[in-house]
Design brief:
about 290 residues, eight-stranded antiparallel sheet, seven-stranded antiparallel sheet
Length: about 290
Amino acid sequence: MGLSWQQGPLADGAIGHFLTPHPMPERLLYAERLRRRMRVKFNGAWIADSENVVLLHEPGRYPVAYFPRADVDAQVLVASGKVTRHKDLGDTSWYAVRAGDRTTERAAWEFTALPGHATELQDRIAFAWRAMDAFYEEDERILGHAADPYHRIDIRNTSRTLEVRLGDTVVARSEHPVVLFESGFAPRWYVPRADVDESRLRPVEGQTFCPYKGLCDYYDIGDARRAAWSYRNAYREVDRIDDLVSFEPDQVEVRLDGTRLHLEPGQKVVPHGIDRGLEVDEAEGH
């Protein structure tokens, strides 16, 4: 999300372009100091603690935090001997992470043959998000995946008419939907439940988690699988969409003021999974 995900300016599917006289590189990586204290917990121990984290943005990936070696407990890193090659940043050496009676393979890495323009990442360690127990900024756990400081959500009321159909059946019709604008994503339209024929919504098992909005429930509509969704306990920062319903324009017919909406790059979200050990109560209690 933000800079490098979906439709963001550094993403492969960017909807804008840089106004420069010469062609830009196909891939742009961006690194900057996070300017927040970040910590990593593994097997009950704090294994990294730094106020000098560098955040790396690269196309199609969530931001990745790189810790100075001096701020990582050196005893937890076990060299694996495995080396891969990053297409932009060269050789990548991998480590297992060991603390107490627990070891996780390929849980950390560093770049060992960086090009001259990327020395800001020299002698820095990154940890695989799902391999760790938790990441924290100060004393607050960062849920889901690394937060992007350039990520933003704006929610706006509108008097436009949104209608949702499956064949000849009207599933929803609203003259006061809200639209959610999220960095790197196409706009999403949400409808109050009073404007939805809920008899057409069939709840399905399985939820996804957004670190900015909370837990998401899904619904089938007829033969259209996961054609609608709702954040039934949305985080307070986005409570204007709490318990509203949104619809996938590639699964059902969605019309805005009579014009049919179509799936855009950045609307089809590829889930990346959630934290190891993240409980539903913890996600809902953010």
